[in-house]
């Protein structure tokens, strides 16, 4: 049952009433709930690998996020929708992307019954702000469609140094020249800080929700020179060594079980360009497949190591800029009453494309003249110990870090939650925190119950949601997780379902489909039923034969 889909008492309100009662307070239940509604800071990374952060087994310097994890919670089995816009649709609506016609994309609008998180929170007195990547229908500030009060939207995902498309409150800003010293990760933080300062000046009594949507470390690999310098020579030993080291650290931290995934040189993204084009149009050291590191030439190793240095620098800078936003909250006296929810839209990417401005042949990784992607070798290491990459529904594509930190509300510092959770849980969690509820209908149409659950129950202890099935579907790849088991199908693989005991084999190395056919059939049947239900939700009120919108290349 969806605990917050009807009017009533939330998990948060129950816990607050108990705590206040024990402390001897006699104020009314309404006053108690109103007084304790936290600010909500949702921080979304873009194409972050499962083990990129230090607190998830990585070697990249991420002290801010590591500190949030040490003082809060890490979720080891948190999932997303496997790609940018489907995950963002789920994050803002609380529904699977298929339910809101965002995977595939039907038409240029939401289903009529859809509303976004700011609609719920705005009705409870929250001010709502966005800074960063949007990648969804309409503009963030359109009240009837999105509901944000202020926004800085970076629509150009190909240029970290000189974007051509960016908007303040849905009004396009001038294109940025390379001489201006702009860097997207810094600018996104700057805009967020300005919104918070404005909030402190004009709405000091109101809670806020800030959606801080970084584009890092999404391709192209554009990094500040001083950030890259911190990682000079760090990756000279290659992706095979890095994958195993991260696997060992993640296992020691208690975040994963079993063997690391096998590197898969035979699997590439169908839209990636050929090896010949990579080497003749980008750089002679570019590689399109996850081959063994020791098979590379010295030139290839040097170039590839530089690429990973750029990726690490982008993650490092994101961590630093988040730190500045948190410092602003401290200055406002709001840090203790702000819950920080950090996640990624999908895993690291293996795709190799020629995008953005025409790349200067031989340009160094990280510079504005280069337009490079991480590639499958480093993506395998960045997602270690998980299998495959962004776009796929194997663990490397759909699993990401989730860190939740709330000084005034979470006492279980440094603990790990292993119960499977999903990005559709974020909206129910935010509504629970805000003591909000979802009406039975919106814009004249009944809305489905949320498929997700509030994570507030997990703040104090591990929940028991063994009966819960998590659904995955993207571009031909499919998956379903039920308890400790997962069925998964890879696109272009002859409709072959695989079966893994994820609780002991997070790397998906031992396919048990032939050994447990009855269990596999059961999971596939659940997937098919949910697929039918969610597609019907997405088409409700639409022409069922509506043309699927061709996704813009930046999506």
Fold blueprint:
Layout: H1 11-22, H2 29-36, E1 39-45, H3 63-70, E2 73-75, E3 78-79, H4 84-93, H5 117-122, E4 127-132, E5 150-154, E6 166-168, E7 171-172, H6 184-202, E8 208-213, H7 225-229, H8 239-252, H9 275-282, H10 298-332, E9 338-344, H11 376-382, H12 395-398, E10 402-405, E11 415-417, E12 421-422, H13 426-433, E13 441-442, E14 445-446, E15 469-474, E16 477-482, E17 485-489, E18 497-501, H14 517-539
Parallel strand pairs: 1-8, 1-9, 2-11, 3-12, 4-5, 4-8
Antiparallel strand pairs: 2-10, 5-6, 6-7, 9-10, 13-14, 15-16, 16-17, 17-18
Describe the structure.
The protein is α/β, with parallel strands linked by helices and 555 residues long.
Strand content: 5-15%
Which class best fits the helix and strand makeup? alpha/beta
Q: Which geometry do the CA atoms define?
A: globular
Fraction of residues in helices?
A: 25-40%
Mean pLDDT score = 92
Radius of gyration: 22 Å
Q: Trace the largest sheet across and list its strands.
A: 7-6-5-4-8-1-9-10-2-11
Unreliable stretches, pLDDT < 50, 5 or more residues? 1-9, 16-34
Number of strands: 18
Main beta sheet strand tally, sense and closure: 10 strands, mixed
Number of helices: 14
Distance between the termini: 34 Å
């Amino acid at each position: 049952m969806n605990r917050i889909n009807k009017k009533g008492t939330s998990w948060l309100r129950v816990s607050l009433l108990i705590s206040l009662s024990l402390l001897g307070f006699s104020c009314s239940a309404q006053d108690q709930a109103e007084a304790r509604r936290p600010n909500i800071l949702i921080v979304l990374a873009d194409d972050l690998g499962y083990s990129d952060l230090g607190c998830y087994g990585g070697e990249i310097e991420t002290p801010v996020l590591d500190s949030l994890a040490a003082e809060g919670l890490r979720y080891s089995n948190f999932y997303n929708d496997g790609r940018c816009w489907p995950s963002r649709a789920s994050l803002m609506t609380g529904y699977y992307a298929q339910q809101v016609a965002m995977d595939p994309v039907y038409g240029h609008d939401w289903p009529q019954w859809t509303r976004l998180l700011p609609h719920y929170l705005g009705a409870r007195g929250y001010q709502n702000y966005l800074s960063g990547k949007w990648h969804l229908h309409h503009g963030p500030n359109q009240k009837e469609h999105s509901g944000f009060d202020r926004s800085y939207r970076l629509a150009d995902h190909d240029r970290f140094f000189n974007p051509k498309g960016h908007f303040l409150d849905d009004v396009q800003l001038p294109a940025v020249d390379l001489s201006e010293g702009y860097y997207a990760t810094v600018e996104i933080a700057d805009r967020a800080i300005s919104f918070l300062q404005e909030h402190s000046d004009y709405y000091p009594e109101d809670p806020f929700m800030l959606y801080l949507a970084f584009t890092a470390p999404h391709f192209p690999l554009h990094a500040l020179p001083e950030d890259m310098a911190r990682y000079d020579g760090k990756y000279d030993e290659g992706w095979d060594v890095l994958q195993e080291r991260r696997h060992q650290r993640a296992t020691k931290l208690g975040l994963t079980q079993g063997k690391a995934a096998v590197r898969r040189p035979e699997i590439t993204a169908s839209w990636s360009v050929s090896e010949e084009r990579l080497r003749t149009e980008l750089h002679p050291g570019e590689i399109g497949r996850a081959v063994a590191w020791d098979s590379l030439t010295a030139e290839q190793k040097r170039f590839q190591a530089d690429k990973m240095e750029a990726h690490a620098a982008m993650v490092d800078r994101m961590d630093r800029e988040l730190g500045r936003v948190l410092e602003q909250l401290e200055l406002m006296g709001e840090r203790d009453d702000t819950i920080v929810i950090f996640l990624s839209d999908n895993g690291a990417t293996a795709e190799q494309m020629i995008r953005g401005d025409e790349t200067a042949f031989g340009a160094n990784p990280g510079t504005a003249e280069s337009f490079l992607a991480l590639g499958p070798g480093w993506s395998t290491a960045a997602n270690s110990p998980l299998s495959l990459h962004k776009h796929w529904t194997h663990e490397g594509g759909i699993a990401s870090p989730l860190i939740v930190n709330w000084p005034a509300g979470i006492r279980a510092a440094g603990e790990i939650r292993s119960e499977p959770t999903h990005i559709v849980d974020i909206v129910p969690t935010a509504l629970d925190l805000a003591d909000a509820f979802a009406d039975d209908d919106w814009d004249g149409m009944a809305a489905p119950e949320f498929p997700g659950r509030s994570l507030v129950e997990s703040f104090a202890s591990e929940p028991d949601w063994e009966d819960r099935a998590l659904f995955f579907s993207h571009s031909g790849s499919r998956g379903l997780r039920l308890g400790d088991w997962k069925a998964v199908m890879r696109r272009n693989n002859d409709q072959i379902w695989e079966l893994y005991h994820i609780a002991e084999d997070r790397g998906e190395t031992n396919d048990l489909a032939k050994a447990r056919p009855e269990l596999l059939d059961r999971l596939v049947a659940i997937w098919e039923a949910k697929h039918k239900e969610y597609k019907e939700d997405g088409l409700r009120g639409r022409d069922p034969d509506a043309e699927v919108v061709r996704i813009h290349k930046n999506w």
